[in-house]
Amino acid sequence: MASANAGGAPSAALPPAPKPRKSVTGTRKSVAVLFLAPALVLLGALVLYPIGYSVFRSFFDKSGDFTALGNYKTLFTDDTILTAVKNNAIWIVVAPTLATGLGLIFAVLTERIRWGTAFKLVIFMPMAISMLAAGIIFRLVYESDPDRGVANAVFVTAHDTFATSSAFPQAHPSTRSPLKPAGGGAFVTRDAVSAGTPVALPLTGVAPDNMPDDAKSAAAAKPDPDKVSGTAWQDFTRGKGRGEVNAPDKAEFGYAGIKVEAVKNGKVVASAKAAADGTFALPKEADGAQLRFPASNFREPYNGVDWLGPSLITPAVIGSYLWIWVGFAMVLIAAGLASVPRELLEAARVDGASEWQVFRRITVPILAPVLAVVAVTLMINVLKIFDLIFIIPPNSSKDDANVLALQLYNSAFLDKDSGVASAIAVLLFLLVIPVMLFNVRRLRREARR
Q1: Segment (H or E) for 280
Q2: What is the pLDDT of residue 41?
Q3: pTM for this structure?
Q4: Nearest to 330 by CA among 98, 102, 103
Q5: How many domains does the chain have?
Q6: What is the per-residue burial (b if ≥16 Cβ within 10 Å, else e) of 410-420?
Q7: In a shared domain, residues 240 and 332
Q8: CA–CA separation, 315 and 151 (whole Å)
Q9: Could you tell me if 75 and 142 lie in one domain?
Q10: CA pair distance 347, 205, nearest whole angstrom
Q11: Are 239 and 197 in contact (CB under 8 A)?
C-alpha cells in the first residue's frame, strides 16, 4: 500500500518492526542460569577454590606462620627444586618438539606405504596403556643387565658384533708368576725369552665355568729352535694341594685365543694368539724380546649404557614419554593432512618441485595450525608430568630426574611442607597461563578467518 508524501508522490510503506527474538531454548536467562548453577558450583569447588587457597597457603610456612614470600624464595634457592625447574624447562622444550616432529614424519610417511593404517595402529597403541604401566615397562627396558634390559641387550649385541669382548676380564698373574704388571692393565715377562726354550705364562682369576667354550686342557709347549713357544693357562686346580705351580696340568684349562706380543725396545716385533690348549708360537724375531699380554685381553665386557644413571635419566624418561605420545601427535596431524588440497601438491610437483620442497613449502605451512594445537597440548601435558618420573628412575637418580609435579608431591606428603608445595603449585599455574593465552589467541584468530 502506498501513501502520498508532501509533494503528492506516493511512497512505500515502512515494514513492521521485528519482534524480539527468544533464546534458542525459549527460556529466560534466569532459567538458563539455574541449569548452569550445578556446573558453576563444581567449577568453583574443584577449580577456583583450590587455586585461591593454594595462593593463600603459599604465604605461610610449614608450621602455619606467615612468611610472606619466603616459600617463593625457597623455590629459587633450594638445589632440589632448582633441579626440578631445570628439568621442567628441558621437558617443555624437548618433549613436545620431538613428539610433534616425529608425529609429522610418521603421518606423512604412512600416506605412502601400503600398510599405513596398520602402522598407525601400532604407533598409537601405547596411548591405551596407562602412564603407570608404561613406567614399569620402561623401568625393565632400561635395566643395566643386558640379560634383562631390552635397550642394553640391543646395544651389547651391536657392540659385540664389531668388537668382541674379552673372555678374561679378571685374569692376573700370581705372586710367583714370571709375569709382572706393565701399566695400563697389561702384563709382561720379567726376563727376555729365547727361541727353543718354552715359556710358561700362568694366570689366575678366571672361574673354570667362565672359561671360553673352546678351551681345552692346558698342554706344555714343545721346544722349537726357530720359534719362541710357550703356554698361557689358568694355573689353578680345585682342591687343596692339587696341581703344580707354574706348570700346566691336565685339570687346568688353556687360555684359548689370548693374545701374546713380543716387545723389543718398546716396539711390538711379533704377536700370536694361543690355541685351545693355551700353546702359542712366535717367529724367531721374538728371540731376546719380552712377552706381553696386552690390556685388551683383560678388558671388562661391554655391558651397555647406564640409562638410569644421573647423566641419562632425563633423556631416558623423555624417550618413554615419546613412545606413548607420538601416536597421539601422529593421529591429529594425519587428520589435518587428510584435508590438505591434493591439487596444490600435484601442481607443485608438476612445476618441478622436489618432495622435500613440497613438504617444506606447502605441507608444513598448511598444517601449521594443527602442529600448533599438538605442540601446545603436549606442552601443557609435560608441565604436569609425574607418573613416569615417579616410577622409572631408581632412588639413586630420583633427584636428578626430578620435576615440579613430583617435587610438589614430595614437599606436600613426604616433607609435610604445605607452604612450599602450594608455592610450587602456584608456579606451575603461572607457567601454564602463557601457554593457555597463546592457545586462546590462536583460536580467536582462526575464528575470524
Answers
A1: strand 279-282
A2: 93
A3: 0.75
A4: 103
A5: 2
A6: bbbeeeebbbb
A7: no
A8: 14
A9: yes
A10: 73
A11: no
